[in-house]
Amino acid sequence: MRRFARVALLCLGCAVCSLLYGLSQLALSLEQEPGGGGRERQARDPATPGARQQAGSAGRGEAGTGRYDYMKTHPSEKMHLAVVACGERLEETVTMLRSAIIFSIKPLHFHIFAEDQLHESFKDILEEFPYEGKVNYTLYPITFPSESAAEWKKLFKPCASQRLFLPLILKNVDSLLYVDTDILFLRPVDDIWSFLGKFNSTQIAAMAPEHEEPRIGWYNRFARHPYYGVTGINSGVMLMNMTRIRRKYFKNDMTPVRLQWGEILMPLLKKYKLNITWGDQDLLNIMFFHNPESLYVFPCQWNYRPDHCIYGSNCKAAEEGGIFILHGNRGVYHDDKQPTFRAVYEAIKNYSFGDDLVHSLLQPLERELQKTTHTYCGRVYKVFIKQLTKSIRDLYARRSKGR
């Protein structure tokens, strides 16, 4: 009888253990991202542990997923967009953020890295933005590795190399779209975010070529270091699967041992600092020269710059579908050298949220663009409003359906 009781207790204990194991596996499966296919889980907290931050209305809520198809069925998920602002870039950065808000469908979380003196101004402006619940933000100080901060700060433009350290600072963000301050979105951020779902198993980031026409290319004519592809890549619009970036071991020309992202940056700078012109963009070109399988290249209309029209139109994708993302590098939003670019910037800067987009944005912009036809870019001004017109039409169509 005593032996029977021991057996019964043993069986009961096994049953309890099996039940607890089953419950734990069920809980774990519920935490995993739907969709399978080897996709990484999305981290939940957008903030870096221990980092000094200032969270606005946005510091509330979870971080978003990095997969567009998942987001279509999970409307509360966010897209993460990062920008680095120093010096006189406050207005330009705010105008970029406005363009992202106007057309985007899913919620946005802005990660704004800025000099300390700009934080209060950013907070005052962003707190006045409408669309509560759709737009969140976190402010961060400019931060470089302490042992080499001085070298990174003086590389190319002030603060520009901050973008290289985003995977190491935003440790709990899975995927991120980095853009320069002089970017304007002419269609929803959702559409470039969807490229994450097109990455193959080896790709960790997406960028556009530096040039379409090799005859005017900078890298293929002047670079004194390795660069990606035929004409190099431009890092002003950079989509990143940061989980993959943090995990990857990179081939390089410094050691036969592959190095992780945090290990390779300083050795690259030491080796090439006398040969690079465009700072952190050159370092990215070197990295992807040695690891070409890791880069997804998207068409020029996703990073349309003056080089695509100042010598004649050479972005065929924009001629066919319009410009999706406008990149006003070389300060063209603020001088008279490229009035076509400046007209788009001024139109978005002066647009008031809630006003009719056709009468308050599109029509005045088209009138201004028609005044620029004496320039090469002005001669193709219709590519500047082709996608913008469609984005406005699609936005009103979504509103009429109650989305």
Cα-to-Cα separation, first versus last residue: 70 Å
Count of distinct strands: 12
In N-to-C order, the SSE pattern is HEHEHEHEHHEEHEHEHEEHHEHEHHHH
| Strand arrangement across the biggest beta sheet | 1-4-3-2-5-8-7-11
**Spans of at least 5 consecutive residues with low confidence:** 19-76
The residue fraction in helices comes out at 25-40%
Using only CA atoms, what is the Rg?
Answer: 24 Å
Category by helix and strand content: alpha/beta
Proportion of beta-strand residues: 5-15%
Q: Count the helices. How many? A: 16
Largest sheet: 8 strands, mixed
**What is the 3D shape?**
globular
Mean pLDDT: 83
Structure description:
The chain is an alpha/beta fold. Helix content is 39%, strand content 13%. It has 16 helices and 12 strands. The strands form 3 sheets. It has an 8-stranded mixed beta sheet with strand order 1-4-3-2-5-8-7-11, sandwiched between helices. Strands 6-12 form a two-stranded antiparallel sheet. A two-stranded antiparallel sheet has the order 9-10. Strand 9 and strand 10 form a beta hairpin. Helix 13 runs antiparallel to helix 14 and helix 14 runs antiparallel to helix 16. The longest helix has 30 residues. It is globular, with a radius of gyration of 24 Å. The N and C termini lie far apart (70 Å).
